[in-house]
Amino acid sequence: MYNCFDVAKQFLKLAKEDGQVLEPMKLLKLTYIAHGWFLGFYDKPLIKNSVQAWKYGPVIPELYHVTKRFGHSNVDIEIVDLYSENKLSNEDKAFLKTIWNAYKGFTGLQLSTKTHMNNTPWKEAYDPKVYHKVISNEIIKEHYKKLIDERR
């Protein structure tokens, strides 16, 4: 399991290689989506940070609070690096590149829409009366396993 900043940093590197801007919303959603697919494929979490059901979708609070200052601008990799433990294996970097290639063409808003549609972990967990409810890894894993099964 990794720190969410390790995963985010890798996405920032991949975006830079492709000449893309990665604003906070897209970075947050990519990190969450990668965590979901990892749970679905490997039955273990990619990140050790919790995911919470906020009003506008799933959020990794630590990553949100560090990156929100960038608004709609590119997140500075040097800021994310301050929190990174730099522990990604080459195998997991390859996994993240696969996720990047699948989702890099979407905007942050499009990814946000995908993560809080009906039948998603966020939709199942969100309760407007409960502030920042945690979305369990089990719920996320079940959702992504279902997506994997649908693609087979």
Could you tell me the strand content as a percent range?
5-15%
Shape: globular
Tell me the distance between the termini: 27 Å
> Helix fraction?
55-70%
Strand order of the biggest β-sheet: 2-1-3
- How much is the average pLDDT? 96
Instruction: State the total count of DSSP E strands.
Output: 3
Describe what this molecule looks like in 3D.
The chain is mainly alpha-helical and 152 residues long. The protein has one domain (4-151). It is 57% helix and 7% strand. The chain contains eight helices and three strands, in the order ααββαααααβα. It has helices at 4-17, 24-42, 61-67, 77-81, 90-103, 108-115, 121-125, 137-151; strands spanning 51-54, 57-59, 133-135. It has a three-stranded antiparallel beta sheet. α1 (4-17) crosses α5 (90-103) and α2 crosses α8. The longest helix has 19 residues, at 24-42. The chain is globular, with a radius of gyration of 14 Å. The mean pLDDT is 96.
